[in-house]
Amino acid sequence: MASSVAELISERIDTMPAGERRAAQTLIASYPLIGLKTVAEFSQQAGVSSPTILRFVARLGFQNYPEFQSALQDELAAQLQSPASRTTAARSPLPASTVPILEAVLENIRETFRHVSDRQLSDIVDQLANSRSHIYLLGGRFTDPLAHYMAVHLHLIRPNVTHLVGQESLWRDRLIDIGKRDTVLIFDIRRYQDSLVRFAEKAHQRGATIILFTDQWLSPIARFARHVIAGRTAVPSAWDSTASLFVATETVVGALTQRLKAEGAKRIREIEDLR
Fold this sequence. Notes:
Blueprint: H1 5-12, H2 18-29, H3 39-46, H4 50-59, H5 65-79, H6 83-90, H7 99-114, H8 118-129, E1 135-139, H9 144-157, E2 161-163, H10 168-174, E3 183-187, H11 194-205, E4 209-215, E5 227-231, H12 243-259, H13 261-274
Parallel strand pairs: 1-2, 1-3, 3-4, 4-5
């Protein structure tokens, strides 16, 4: 599977001049729709010249702007797919062997980490290691188990960790406690959950730092996020696989545990003593 435009940006943004970086950030903030507009409209929204937009597109490896837009159109179509549409589109039975799915999952993990830099992971760990920050975690219908899994681990190695569960109204009530020092970590994959997007926007407006774990097509929450981990999720099935995001979650937990080695060990001992 070819790299998404978002993945290409993640790979190359550190080498981009300031103008192209602004174009990249503008695209991510309205992904992928701003890229489907004309060069003039894209450049105006990014606050850069039209030639800068064309240089940005070329840096991503596209021969021209129409080729760039065609890639985004394909991604938009993939974003909108549901399990029902993927089942219908297959036109053939799912493989009797689990090997094709296993190979796809392994490739997803490899590709995910090919596009995630050490700097990204380090910045996320820095944010989660900040003892002054209260961490709130939540996920969608299929991704909330990842939020729960991470929350259980974080609770063992640092204080002030809350997994938001239950109805959306209960999440909204917690917004009153969320402020500029706090971190909201959200898991959201296609088809993106409107309630999560609304919560992320409100938390962002209150000054919280948003960390997003999403798929390669990027949840709309990306426009509010300071840090984004985009995992590959597509497999030869009606259902997306969250295996790559699970491994990314364990990677972050492992790195954070190492960062908080002394504090975490002391906290775990005290928890064990209380049992």
